[in-house]
Every structure is written in C-alpha cells, then in structure tokens.
Amino acid sequence: MKNKLFAALGAGLLMAGLAITPSLVEAKDSGFKIMMTPKWTGFPYFELTGEGAKAAAKELGDELIYAGADHAEASLQVETLQNFVTQKPDGIILSAIDLNAVAPVLKNARKKGIAVATYDADAAVPARDMFVNQLSYEQAARVMLDCALIDVPEGGEIAFIAASPTSPNHMAHIKIMTNLTQTEDKYKVFKVVDTQFANDDDAKSYDVAVNLMQAHPNLKVIISSSAVSAPAAARAIEASGHVGKVYATGFALPSAIKRYLENGSEKAFAFWDPWELGYVTAYALHEKMAGKFQPTEGAVLTVEKVGTFKTAKDGEVVYGKPLIFTKDTVEKYKF
Amino acid sequence: MSMRTRTAIPTWELVLCVLIVAAGVWSSKLSPYYLSIDQIFESTRHFIIPGLLALGLAMVVSTGEIDISLASIVAVGTVALSKLAAAGFSIYVAAPIVIVIGALCGTLNGVLVARYGLPSLAVTLGTMGAYRGLAFIVGSEVGYTDFDDSFLWIGSEKLFGDIVPISFCVFVTAAIGVWLLMHRTFFGRHCFSIGLNPDASWFAGVEVVKVKIRTYALAGALAGIAALVWVGQYGSARGDNADGSILFVVTAVVLGGMDINGGRGTISGVVLSLLLLGTIRNGMGLANFGGPTQTVVLGVLLVGGVLRPALAATLARLRRHTSDKQAGA
Amino acid sequence: MSGAIGAVGASRQFTKFVLRMRETGVLVFLAILGIAFSLLTSTFFTVQNITAVASSAAILAIAACAQAIVLLTRNLDVSVGSMMGFAAYLTADFAATHPGISPIVLVFIPMGIGLVLGTINGLLVAYGKVQALIATLGTMSLYRGLIYIYAHGQEVTSSRLPHWLLGFIDARISGIPVLVMLAVGIVVVVSLFLQYFPLGRRIYAVGSNPVASFFFGLRSERIVLLAYMLCGLLCGVAGFLYAVRVGTVTVVLASGWEMSSLAAAVIGGVSVAGGSGTVIGAALGAVVLATIDNGLVLLNVSEFWRMFIQGAAIVAAVAADAMIASSIGGAFYARRPR
Questions:
Q1: In what order do the strands lie in the sheet with A190-197?
Q2: What is the number of alpha carbons within 13 Å of residue A10 lying toward its C-beta?
Q3: Does the beta carbon of C105 lie under 8 angstroms from any beta carbon of chain B?
Q4: Cβ contact (<8 Å) for A171 and B141?
Q5: Which residue in chain C is spatially nearest to A214 when comparing CA positions?
Q6: For chains A and C, what is the number of CB pairs under 8 angstroms?
Q7: Which residues of A touch B (CB under 8 A)?
Q8: Distance CA C228, CA C121 (A)
Q9: pLDDT category of residue C257 using cuts at 50, 70 and 90
Q10: Which residue of A114, A305, A329, B61 has the fewest C-beta atoms within 10 A of its own C-beta?
Q11: Distance between CA A327 and CA C251 in Å, rounded?
C-alpha cells in the first residue's frame, strides 16, 4: 500500500515537472490506475499485449495491473472484471470472450466513471468507450487472402479453420473472405469449399487440417484467423507429406511459424505486432482519461513513436498495421 | 457406521467454518477492498450458478451417483429461454418451461442410470456432449441477446436497500429447500440410505429407481433455474454458456464433505464449501493474483482439505490399535 | 472360503468370454461406422485416409490405455491431461535449451516426469485414502497451475525443437507412420502385461472385487499405486508424442484430455465400475472417436452435430455394453439393484 502511494506520488511529481500542455479538463493528467484482462493469461500473444500496455503505462506515469483467469471462460472473465471495478481503477482494458456477457459489468463500471477500452475482441458497443481494433475485419480478410495468393498465385480450393461458431471476428473474416472470392477479380481464383472448427486447440487443429486434406483432394490453401490453428495446420501439412501441394496461412506469431517458412514448406503468414497493439490501447485509454482524446468518428489519436490512428464509427480506433511474414522477413520479428 | 457419520460430519463443517473465517481474514489482509458488505454481496453473484448446480449435484451424489452433464443442461436452458423470448413469450410462461426442460434433461439421465443400471459417470459424460451439442444446434452459431428487462430482473436487480442481489435470494431459497428435502423428509433419508447400501434399501422397501430418477430430475430443474440466472446476469444465451464450470461444481460438492460414493454428507457442508471457495476466490481476485496461482491454491486446498481428515482417521486408528494392544497385553 | 475361490476359478472362463465380447462390440461398431462412411463418401476408404485416422487416434489411444488401467482398479484419473501437459512442456523446454541432448536420454525425461506425477496420484488415492475423483481433481489443477507458473507466458515453438525429433515422428516405415507403430506397440505391451503377468492380473482382481481380493491376500494399496504409476508413465509418453506431433508446445497442451481419454475408454467397453474391459478396447475406443471426427469432416457435417453424435455414441456404447454384460453374465455382473 505504502509502495503504491510512493509510486503514485513519484509519478505525479515526475509528470508535474514534465507537464507542458495544460489539460482542458480538471481531471488529472497522469498517475491513473489501469487494470487489464485478456481472454486468458498464459498465452504468449496476450502476454505480449500486456507487456506493451505496461510499457505505455510506465512511460505515461500510470500504474497498470494485468490479471485474469487461466482459461477462456466468460463467467470467469466477468468475475475478474467485477473484482477490477471493486478496486476503483480509472480505466479498464479487456479482450472480451463473450461480447454480451461482459456488457452488464462494464456498463456498471462506466456508470462509476471508469473508462473502458477493448482490444483484440470487442464488447457490445454501449459497454465500452473505445475498441482498439488490430485490423478491421475487411483488412484482415484481405491480408489473409493476399497471403494465400503468395502461396498459390494460380488459385484453387481454399478451406477455413475457425475457433468456434461463436467467435465473432473469425466468423466475420470468413464471411468477408467468402464474399471477396465471389466479387473481386483478384481473389476470384479461389473457391471456398469448407469451414471447420478447432476451438483454438492445437491437436484438434492438426486433426482438422489432416481431415480437410482428406476430404478435399484438390485443396490448395487452409486459412485460419486463429494463432493456434494456423501453425498446427502448417505442421500437419509438413508431417502428412503434403508439402508443396497444400499451404497453410492466416494469423500466427512469427516464432510459431518460423520453422515452416525457413524450411520452405510454407510461404507466407500474417499478423500484427501484439506488443504495439497493447501499447497503443493503453496509450489511447490514457489520452481519453486525461481528456486529450475523445473516440468520436473521425477523431485522430497520435501515439508518440508509433503513429497516428483514425477513429471509425462507434469508437473503433483502427490500429490497422498488418505484417506479412515471409522467409526473408520472419527473422526480423522477435515475438 | 452411523455413530461415525453422526460425529464426523459436524466436525468437517466446523473445519469449514474455521477455514471460511481464516479465508476472510486472509482476504482482508490481501486487499483493502475486501471488507465491505456491498463488495461481499456483489461477489456472491459469481457463485450462484455453480452453487445451484452444486445443490443439485449433492442430491445426486448422496445416492452414490454423479451427474457431470449439469453445466450442459444450463446451456440447453439458456438457449431454450432465448427461443421462447424470441417467440414473444413472457418470462412467467418461459421460466417454468425452461425449468421443466431442465428437469426433463435430468430425468433422461436418471432413467438411463437408474432404470437401465448404466454407470452414471459414463452416461453423463455422454449426455454432457450431447446436451451441449443440442444447445448449439438449437441456438445456431450466433447467440441471442435481445432479452427485455423482465428476463434480466433475476440477475441484475437487488433487494433490501439495493444490497442483496435477487440471485442470491434465489440461491438461499433453493439451499433451504434442498436442505429441508434432504435432511427433514423421507425422500432425503432414502437418498442417503441408497448411497450407503442400495441392496439393503431395496429390501427395506425403498423404491431405488424412482428415488434416483427424482434426484436427477431435481438436479436438472436446478440447472434450469441456473439458466434463468445466467441469462439474468449476463444477458447472453449461447451454446457455450457455462462450459467448463462442472469441475468447479464437483470440487464444491466434494469439498463440502459429500462422499462421492454416496450415503454421507450434508447440504450445509456443500453451502459452506461454496462460501469458502467464494471467499478465497474473491480475496485472491481482488489482490489480482494470476489465474495459475489461483488454480494451484485451489488444487492444494482440495487435496489438503480432504487428506487431512483421512490422516486424522489414520492417526486415530493407529492410536486405537496401540491402545488395544496395550489393553490386550 | 473355498467356495469363493471356486467361484473365482469358474468365472475366469466367463470373464474371458465377456472380455472378448466387449472388444467384439467395439469392433462391430467401428465396422458399422466404417461401412457407413465408405458408402457416404468416396474419400473415406482410402489407404491415405485410414492412415490419417490411425495417426489421429494414436496418441489418444495411449492416453485411453492409461485411463483404462486406473479404471480397472475401480478408480479414476482426471489429471491425465495435466500430466501430459506437464511432461510435454518440461521435456520440450529441456530439449529446446539442450539441443545436443541424446535421443535416448530425452525419451526417459517425460517417462520419469509422468512416473513421478502418477506416483503422487497413487499415493494420495491408495495410501492417503482420498477418493480418486477428489485427489485427481486436485492434482489436475495443481499440475496445470505449476506448468503455467513455470512457463511464464511462453511457449516452445517448432523451430526451437530439435529437427531430428520432428522428423522421427513424421517418418513412415513402408507407409505406416512411426507414431502409429509406437502406439500399437505400447498398447500391445500393456495389454500383455495385464493379461499374462500376475501383477497385471491383480489389477483386474482388485477392481472386480476389492473385498474378495483382500481376503485372497492381495495388497490392494500397492496395486492401486502401481496402476496410477503406470498411468502417469503412459501419460508422460503420450504428452511427449503429442508435443512432437503438434510442434508448438503450449501450457494448455492436452487440456480436456481427461474427458476424451475417459470417453475413449468407455466407448471401448472399459467399465467405470472397475474390473472389466481391456486396454485394447480402450485403444479401439480412441479409433472410434477419431473415425467419427474424420468421417463427419469428410461429410461436411456441422461441428454442433459432431458434439451431439459423439455424446450419443458414448451413451450407446455404455448401453450396448450393459446389454451384453447382462445377457451373458446376468447375476454375476449386475451390481445395481433393479
């Protein structure tokens, strides 16, 4: 308790010295208490977003606490959020498991003056102030199809692996990708043949990938928005002797797919920088709490060292910096 | 045997009470936010759904059977409620229907287990998947959220000066009801006697099959009520509702002193163990303990809590053994 | 007393017969599934697809075999998935940080870890007298929580694992994946041990009638401990194979496998009431689950129906098993009053 007080005091003094722009609102300028919960803790992707957010908080003189259950269960996440609200933070950051289940507790938090930002996966719109979206659904769909084009320029049959039919972003990606293959000339070379579900489970993804290759002998590309399923599909292709005939692509951490890019069994995967996503989210929330940024349509958020981000409808701040990893570029990324 | 039952169980409940107080003290040390009536009542919300399931499971376990499909029945219930709400039924019609659907799911388990003598763990492992699948098939991939306020009332409103959540009152009512049923009626006695010795109970004229089916039906009905609370609290009905919570429910029941082989245990023990688990989770949550640490603590507590009486019994047996020897000599 | 021994002797023929029947039951079910899928799709009954199903089933078969041994003693192990994850993560982490490690040493690490974890379970159940479900529920959380804390938000990725390791598991000998051969070998060895070694047979004895085996002079504690140790050992192996197969080793590896292994064992005719069933049946149960998964993907059936069908298959298997048991064994096998 004492330590926290000193930290806050120190941070406050530090910021008092640094403060150049006088705030328009009476609200304080820094020393905010931010609490953050991912879908589940212990998964490298979320840990990286947590580290990014912590770094931003440290630079801005805020305190950031990162906690959560060790498996993705909506009711546990609500419990975590309720515990957060009790501790009277200034802001909450989360990646929602069930966009509606978290809504009541978040609305309650906002009533108490707590600013709420979602990242990675959104909550119901009235339940949060802003959503820092890594990539818009359309952008994500295009990036994945572009990767598929790198794999197989001549096109062919493609199949999807999603986490579950209840994961909104995966389902939206699949819908848009399916649309694009019917409407846009560039992508018309592809034909969508199947969608399967693997619950973000690696063994299940592996088996589903194998089964997809059995079910569709002419299958060319397996696409997955799940960072668990995409590497598992790549491994399944390598192990079942389909190298060169079928490709896997989609979103994956570069460390997880480095092997396949380097040994030539795969050509391209995509992702974004999770550290930076966490950084931008915490930064945006800080600016909102300090009264320097209102997430209304068209508003621009300037994040020092990273860039500027536009706000779309409904407080959606689009981070929108996709990365494509190929054999030559994968070495650069350290996550 | 009955002597031991009578003396051993209150002791266990006393241990639980002591542990709850200890956990409360520990929690208030961990976090300055813990010690507040508002906060504590608010935190009970998260234990209403597993709590209702635990009450139902306790009844099933008292007869020496088990039901791990209860969390899936909750999902069937929430999805059914969403369909009824979408069809324009009022909550007063929809709620009883959902409870009946829960009871029917439970009855099916009960018939398979009791009437056909199938092993309950295996049967409910199967129906766990089947009911979950059914919830998904009926609910389709998108969840339903357009519940009007009358559906949310049970989970969102509070009574008595805006302090006590209604869902908490629901749980207390259910707990008292189940306690009366299990400890003050013939039905309850029959349950425990079946758990202790099914053959002897049958010869004594207990309708073993009927009693067992009734426990399953009641557990299913409680899961139906839990589904109402789920929708009330979270306003969301999807096929994956309450997925993965059954192990916590089983933990609460066995930590409450219910013998998993049946015949022994009390409902008050189960309620106390829920309080204990709730207090510990609340305290650790407020202190922002990581999920893994919480998991380890719960695991140690479970093993340690159950190992201790076993150790005590062993020690007592050894002592008796040596004193017998001395007396013999 | 002599009457009781006589009954045990006479029932041995009986038991053997029933056991054989149990496996026949799974095989018939498997054949029906196979024929149905072959008729419905053109892709099911191909060498390539059968191989794919077999390698999908291989690791679950080992886990189911582990679960079956414990079930035979009238106990249960819900920490199967956590033990697999624990052994897999530690071994993969070790292999990643010691790239030069000799293959033979590496294989013993997961086995050793599994053995230790299984021994803890066994001691709790056999000597601590904690009910199996409670003890293993506790260790399930405990083991899983410890991996999380150890891993500290990291995972072991395929590029960090030794290349020969991944290559070895992908290899095929005359078309048959090494993984499948390993699984078959393990299941056969365990099966022979249970059927023909006195120690193995005692596992059946303790499970089918604890009181009789006590009077017969069997030390049930030791045998239960042995069953849990074997289970841990096999889980260690299964976890290691899982890690190498999937390539990316995460902290959640094999979570939920306590249920899958139980489902496979139950479908394979292993009785949760102890004493009857075989590990070969359990392994066949794993094949049934893999076949259902594969066939439904080939048929392009929705995920929802897959869950429903798998659940229904478990209930059907249990019901069929009970029917076979009651029609043959009648009074001998009926444990519950009607």
A1: A190-197, A156-162, A219-224, A247-250
A2: 9
A3: no
A4: yes
A5: C49
A6: 112
A7: 1, 35, 40-42, 65, 67-71, 73-75, 78-80, 82-83, 86-88, 98, 100-101, 103-104, 124, 164-166, 171
A8: 6
A9: very high
A10: A305
A11: 27
Nearest-angstrom CA–CA distance, C62 and C34: 22
Closest listed residue to residue A229, CA positions, set A326, A163, A151, A135: A163
Among C159, C256, C297, beta carbon nearest to A211: C297
Are A79 and B285 inside 8 Å of each other by CB? yes
- Give pLDDT tens digits for A20-36: 444 444 457 788 999 99
Residues 156-185 of chain A with CB under 8 A from chain C are 164-165
The CATH fold assigned to A137-271 is Rossmann fold (3.40.50)
pLDDT tens track for B158-202:
887 778 888 999 999 999 999 999 999 999 999 999 999 988 999
How many residues in total does chain A contain? 335
What are A185's two structure tokens? 């000339």
Q: CA–CA separation, B183 vs B230, rounded Å?
A: 28
- Which ranges in chain A are annotated with CATH 3.40.50.2300? 2-134+273-321, 137-271
pTM: predicted TM-score of the whole model, two decimal places: 0.87
Tell me if A158 sits within 8 A of A191, measured CB to CB.
yes
Buried b (16+ CB within 10 A) or exposed e, B182-218: beeeeebebbbbbbbbbeebbeeebebbebbbbbbbb
Architecture of the domain spanning B2-289: Orthogonal Bundle (1.10)
Which residues of C, range 118-157, sit inside 8 Å of B by Cβ? 124, 128-131, 133-135, 137-146, 148-149
- Rounded Cα distance between A278 and B117, Å, is 55
The alpha helices in C45-131, defined as continuous H runs, are 47-72, 80-97, 103-122
**How confident is the model at residue B4, as a pLDDT?**
44
Nearest CB to A83; choose among B239, B240, B285: B285
Chain B interface mutation, best of C117, C121, C130, C136, highest count of B Cβ atoms under 10 Å = C130
How much is the pLDDT for A25?
45
Task: Report the C-alpha gap between C108 and C95 in whole angstroms.
Answer: 12
Fold assignment, A2-134+273-321: Rossmann fold (3.40.50)
**What ipTM, to 2 d.p.?**
0.83
Measured distance CA(B229)–CA(A81) in Å, rounded = 18
| Tally of CB atoms within 10 A around C242 | 27
Chain B residues lying within 8 Å of A74, measured CB to CB: 234, 236, 240-241
Assigned token pair, A212: 């997809």
Sequence-separated (6 or more) residues with CB below 8 Å from residue A7: A63
pLDDT band at C21 (very low <50, low <70, confident <90, very high): low
Domain extent listing, chain C: 22-332
A62-71, A276-285, C6-15, C308-317: range with lowest mean pLDDT:
C6-15
pLDDT band at C103 (very low <50, low <70, confident <90, very high): confident
Nearest to C37, CA basis, from C287, C267, C300, C298 = C298
Model pLDDT, residue B301:
78
**Nearest C-alpha in A relative to B49:** A75
C322 touches chain B (CB under 8 A): yes
Task: State how far residue B271 is from chain A, nearest Cα, in angstroms.
Answer: 20
CA–CA distance, C79 with C235 (Å, rounded to integer): 10
Beta-carbon separation of B291 and A68 below 8 A: yes
Q: How confident is the model at residue C14 (pLDDT cuts 50, 70, 90)?
A: low
Angle in degrees, CA C44, C49, C54, rounded to 5 = 115
